[in-house]
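Form 12-C: Joint structure prediction
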Amino acid sequence: MRVLLLGSGGREHALARALAADADVAVLHAAPGNPGIAAIAVTHPLDLADIAAVTDLARSTAADLVVVGPEAPLVAGLADALQVAGIACFGPGAQAAMLEGSKSFAKQVMTAAGIPTARARTCVSETEAAAALAEFGPPFVVKADGLAGGKGVLVTGDAAAALAHAQAAGTVVIEEFLDGPEVSLFALTDGVTALPLLPAQDFKRAGDGDSGPNTGGMGAYAPLGWAPPALAAEVVASVVQPAIDQMRRRGTPYRGLLYAGLSLTAAGVRVVEFNARFGDPETQVVLDRLASPLAGLLAGAATGSLAGAGPLRWAPGAAVTVVIAAEGYPAAPAKGDPIDGIDHAERIPGAYVLHAGTATDAAGQLVSAGGRVLNVVGTGPGLAAARDAAYQAVGAIRMRGGWYRHDIAEAAAQAGHDPAAQAGHDPAAPAGPSPGAGASPAPASPAPASPAPASQGGTSRGTQPGAASAQTSASRAPAPPPGR
Ligand code: AMP
Ligand code: GLY
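Section 2 - Result
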């Protein structure tokens, strides 16, 4: 199989690594890629917003399969254009990608399909927004309707800030606050069949202890030893399959990866959001554990032939990824800082380094080129060993101004939520009695990495630091730079 992978972040480096390791992949092209991806794929400069140029590259590389990493090209209709060109594409068409592209559309689909989620109102005026805020009460959750690059959501106890965010964003979804640990569950789907991957947890806040501003994600781990063993199967039954069936009934079948962002509340599982692509950085740990070859699965999803592809095989043990971010991230990341020590980091047993925001300068030196610069992955028989490997490797890397969280997977590892050997573990195994909406059990134990509710800490998640969130964005300086 000839594969063209699109994107340039840590998620795409993880995808490239899994595809390059797959014996079915004869040639791997990537665009635009990054220096890490360039070491294992043939890279091409490309503007992913230029759909005609992407289609041309897919043709000129004779790609059997195009794998789309980020959401924007999907929402812009890239998968539709490739379909017209007769090229198989992993990723939904524009209308199906609206599950991520419009929060109000996602709510409509969830309501129609009976999927458990926060009660919500779509508001287009200040009067409507004020009424919805009064209806749901604090903590207030206000979400810009469209794609906002991770900056559209505000969670705050401050009613005036909530209203101001609603006014600035235009059309918003205002919804009830969901209180519970967050889990990311990814499912591969061909529009009919759903194949869940290993549930993972992301750390969205910049600072240790879930302090500071929201980010794209500062680290992740899998598997979740503390989660109910049947979680993936339950979520497929109550969330993923109903969503896929609903999209098919609407005449806009969803093919690719459906990312369900979940809150495990005391009342059961609730959907926080849908995304139309692999999560970043959760993918880095989930694909690390995937023992089944990836390319055939992605091709099966793209071509409507996923039935019979499961069950998936998972490597025993655990993976933890720690993001090394640039000075100033997330507000105004510095660029061009030299990066050294990756070779030393990769000599730590069980550790390796994925490139997320890197470039090579004119002198050939590796430099930072984005907010999240590197994803250091540690693996081991359990979370504690995987953490040790990841943090030892982080310590070997030198980058001026670089910083990272110190507590990725810490609570789960300390609480003894170290996974037992999980060889052959199939997260899609039958879940026993099929739960109805909202009937899933609460997590077995208090959730590691569940951010404090806004009512306890005065939080603003998913907003730009400084905007109505002074107490969080200024509350704690980011962790010190690695290697000091
Ligand atoms: P989203 O862009 O929808 O993923 O939202 C960003 C983050 O905001 C999520 O990861 C949650 O931490 C938080 N969030 C979104 N919706 C809610 C909600 N209804 N209740 C509590 N937190 C939420
Ligand atoms: N890690 C969160 C996301 O990919 O949206």
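Section 3 - Comments
Residues 118, 141, 143, 153, 155, 175, 177-178, 182, 204, 261, 272-273, 461-462 surround adenosine monophosphate (ligand 1) (CB under 6 Å). The chain has a mean pLDDT of 88.
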